[in-house]
Amino acid sequence: MDSKLTEKGQMTLPKEARDHLNLKPGDRVKIFTHPDGHVVLLPKVPISALKGMLKTHKHATIEEMDEAIRATAVERYRGAARK
Q1: What is the rounded distance in angstroms from the CA atom of residue 83 to the CA atom of residue 76?
Q2: pLDDT of 27 above 80
Q3: Of these four, 2, 3, 39, 53, which has the most CB atoms within 10 Å of its CB?
């Protein structure tokens, strides 16, 4: 993909890149520059877009948390003893 820089320092992002990033008119992008010279362009998404991304889980009781800690400790101890 190619894009030409105007005299004002502006450029048009090619359609293929806009489609890949799922960008629509008015969307904003974040540009990251890396020390090795690479430039990364990512879409900026509002926090509201993240709603529903994580599955909800039931809240564990203190007893369930204690049991999970005990089980993990025993598992780690047995694993360390085998070495």
Answers
A1: 11
A2: yes
A3: 3
pLDDT above 80: residue 56: no
What secondary structure does DSSP assign to 11-67, as a single string? -PPPHHHHHHTT--TT--EEEEE-TTS-EEEEE---GGGGTT-SPP-PPPPHHHHHH
pLDDT of 12: 93
- What CA–CA distance (Å, rounded) separates 17 from 21? 6
Residue 58: both structure tokens together? 């039931």
d(CA 23, CA 15): 9
Q: Which residues contact 32 (CB under 8 A, 6 or more apart)?
A: 39, 40, 41, 42
What residues pair up with 39 in beta bridges, in sequence order? Answer: 33
Whose structure tokens read 């709603």? 51
How many CA atoms does the CB half-sphere of 9 hold within 13 Å?
Answer: 0
Give the pair of three-digit tokens for residue 26.
């008015």
